[in-house]
Design a protein that fits this description.
single chain; 898 residues; mainly beta; eight-stranded antiparallel sheet; six-stranded antiparallel sheet
Length: 898
Amino acid sequence: MHSNIELIVVRNPMAYACDNSDCKIVRGEDLFELVTGIYPKGMPPNTYWYHETWDTECDVTPETPEDIIALNDKGGSFYIVTYPAGPETWIPILVSAFITVAAVLLMPMPVIPNGSANAPPSPNNALAQRTNRQRQGGRTADIYGQVWSVPDLVAVTYTVYINNRAIEMSYMVIGRGWYLVTEALDDTTPINQVFGSGVLIFNPDSTLDDTPAYQFGSAFTPDEAALSRLTTKRYTSVNGQLLPPTDNYLTLDKAVFRAPNIIEISGFNFVNQFKVGDSLVVEQANDLASANGIVDADSNPVTYTLSGTYIIEALTETRIMLSAPISVNADWQKLLDNADYTVEHEVTVSTQSSSLWQGYFYTSEKDHEFVMVNYIASGGLYITDGQTFEPIGIEVEIESEIVDVTNNPVPGTLQVDTHIIYGSKYAEYANNNGLGVWRDGNHWWSGAHVSNTDAAQTAASTIKIENAHMAEGKRLRWRSRRKHGRMRPSKGYSVVQDIRIADFYGAKLMGADYSPPGFTKVYSKTLATEGALSLKERKLTVLAQRLERDWQNNDALIPSKRIDDIIYDIATDPVTSNLTADDLDMVQIKAEVDAQIAYFGTDLCAQFCGTFDSKDITTEEMIQTVAMTGFFTAYRINNKVCLHFERPEAYPVATFNSHSITPNSFEYSESFGPRNDYDGIEVTYTDPIDDAKVTLRYPEDGSATNPDTKNKDLVGVRNKVQAHMHMMRRHWKNQHAYKTCSFTAADESGIVLPTNQINVADQYRADTQQGAVEALQVNGNGQVVLTLSDSVDFGGKAQATVFVQTVAGIVDNIRCMPSNNPHEVILARAPSQPISTSWDAQVHATYQLVLHDDFERDNYIVTTKDPGDNPYSHRLSCINYTDKYYPNDKDFINGLIA
């Protein structure tokens, strides 16, 4: 017991994040009693436990009462957090709900983790080991756009043998949602070119019993279909046990006989061949020499003849102990009297009793309906003279019965079945219409003499043990033996006839509950190449394109790679998102994407093709990731998600001066030459044809000695044109970004986004003329007059330029002339957008007067925007703005990239 156990129960994570008093705290000595007191009817879904710290790395969510008892010994504080409803494998998404009208909130900048702390990433995102595997605890892949998908296994694979060929059955999922699937590959080979392999794709509203939406490769034969769609448990109690014949006849090339009753040989396992109580015939054990070199009274070497029929008293892997061998053969007494043993000698041993059973083997789970057993003769089953092959068949017998909770058989449930394991190509070559004939009382003989070595390949078969008394919820035991004696071929012939038990599965047919709605499912069969020892690693890939909801057509599903379609689909996903269509300004988003397509001259730069596989990424981060792929920034204004496309801008969106920059927060620096002395750049993207990682370099000849390789992998980019645009923009920013500034800005900064152009008055220059606009009016002469908070000095010039912040999110630059009043300037025209002179307005009009014509001198691009000192301020970091960042944006239009 612990007196220091504290439970912090959080039922509303959003409220707790805003006010950490919004929780229930209880303390006591018994963790189990505390929990059952709070949740008398059990914990609700999506409830997670954290020890000491609310962090995924401290997740200690119990799965059994025993887990709670173990946690009780830890003591300390436990956070018990119930998240909003969602998929079981998701950490729920918290979406900001406090968005002020006319204020812009930046969507979270994404950090794309691979998988999660406890689960591997989707192989879609992996650079190596792109194989089909189970990802325990991982998030089901969310694919958007088109990718070569490596489906995740959702059930244990199993192998069956049909016509002596190994076939692996696999159940997988591509991901959540609906997909257009157009190709399927085994590694790099089309499935329809891989003999015997087939892939079935099932839509989210289908089960494995329905007609597949897509099919690639070979159709399932009736025999294959009968052994498919199973959930299995493989038992390790079977590991290749040999089924010896009833008269097991073995040649021991280096047998040693030791007093008083031991036959010994190294490198052999007697336990797999015989059993205690067997009658053992020992032959060719004549005139065996003394290992100690003993001689008789006449100096003749002593020898021993130890052939005979004995009873096995005990067994080890390397020794057979005989029961009273002296009563059978007096030379055992001679061996004992001489305290001797024999030199190694070749002898034969055989049994004449019933054969050695292998088993019993028990099922340990109650969720199976029958048992499957794989028998394999890896060397084949045939008779040969060295030139031709005669396939044969061997009978095996299986006993099965139901057992109770104490593993004792249930009376009346014993069932005995006989099956035949045929050699490779037996049915193809056998006489009597493929049946052959029963011969010598111990095997089925094909009667064929063929030179085709296929007849000497591995022989194997899968046997279903379907005990008539078996049902779900019951347990079963079984054993198996070879039914007849060893074959002894004629002189000049040899026989290959060893059979082993390879696999043992408990199996159950997958019902509708194994086909959860909402996921696109894959069922595949993979045929081993003839003669292969095992199936190779699974590398099934399918070319899959997500079907997105079409916001312009009542959410009808369409294949699309466009960023606006994908953002709509992510945001309105009823399972993973807390957003709705009302939270999106789709007209603005589409218009911005259309403008981007027109700007680049291609829709290739407006595509996203990637996979989200992390449980730790929110809907907002997913949207921002998709947006950034197309040079967009996602933001909110008036409770609506919008997009901003970064491109050359004629005007800044805001101006910041001493009236909007908080005191002592302005920092400024200049540098000479390219950033970090970069003289080139490298980026990688995913090739849409073969899914390979492709590296683009500038300069193309690789002459750069210090290329920028930071963050070189382009997320969601699967075409060369889009990768080229990213590369060249990044490169020219490295070359021309020489000036940086950062500052904390007042509430006017709310409208600013990263990639926006802004005007910043240099706070270190003594001649900076800046302030706030106090009035805008027309005088008696019809002139537009701007009244300013501070006096201005034109320095004897007749004209200057004033930059004025408007409420529309742009900064207007207007030619102006001096007035008789130093606090006034006469504008050449009225501002193009409304301005606000009210001091309590969120976007109050500020100004900067510039006496030069280099209007870009004080213009910057916002690179980051972080929270400021209070809820209304923000810390902005910027680099100098110039159109020189975008000289390659028209390369597609100009035919320089394709």
